[in-house]
TrEMBL record:
Binding site for substrate: N9, W10, K11, G169, S209, G230, G231
EC number(s) on file: 5.3.1.1
Family: Belongs to the triosephosphate isomerase family.
Gene: tpiA
Positions annotated as active site in the UniProt record: H93, E163
Its job: Involved in the gluconeogenesis. Catalyzes stereospecifically the conversion of dihydroxyacetone phosphate (DHAP) to D-glyceraldehyde-3-phosphate (G3P).
Name of this chain's protein: Triosephosphate isomerase
Origin organism lineage: Bacteria, Pseudomonadati, Pseudomonadota, Alphaproteobacteria, Rhodobacterales
Amino acid sequence: MRRKMVAGNWKMNGTASSLTELGNLAYSCKSAKAEVLICPPATLLYRAANVCTDSKVEVGAQDCHSATYGAHTGDLSAEMLHDAGATAVILGHSERRADHGETDQVVRAKAKTAITAGLTAIICVGETLADREAGKTLAVVGAQLASSLPDDTRGTTVVVAYEPVWAIGTGKVPTVEQIAEVHNDLRASLVKRFGGETANAIRLLYGGSVKASNAKEIFAVAQVDGALVGGASLKAADFAPIVAALDAST
Ligand SMILES: O=C[C@H](O)COP(=O)(O)O
């Protein structure tokens, strides 16, 4: 049985004052059954981890370098993030693929390093609107999955987040049938590649304009094990009901 998960991605938002929201969230989630993760900017990781000590909320990072150390000015290694208190890292988010030219091969290298450092790698895949309109959704997402996941993946070391690029921050959400189609295809691809035992332990999150008002119907989709949430993760009052909806779906 896969443990449900809801991860909040603060993206490039948040300063020290935002830690109050994190404290509020930790309080609101004190009885959460699902794994709850907040990924603040790296500047807040250490303090966020301290705020969440002895709570049900874990903290994660939004990216790491593929190397373990060295001359990479401005970058952070997976080991450093782990050292700061992170338990997971988001990799290959479409914003990083677009803003920083990250390829599937780069994402795969980062995932390997993250897993070695003891972090859960949350690997993002998703089609653009042009891909979807051209009928290429499953081909594009399948290719990203195949090339971004390392071969030595174990069920609990990676999480896959399906995030249609056109749904991120837009308020547009795929139909539950569209989400189901992609998640079923992702699960089938994982089973084919890794075998049932490993594949069925990998959690599949949906991301893209998830909010309290649509969480229940998204979480009712069979292969959806939780969500990767952007905008609605910034305020405890918005995020806690999503966690509650996920708990209610289990
Ligand atoms: O990482 C989170 C996703 O990009 C979703 O963002 P959003 O919930 O603001 O659409």
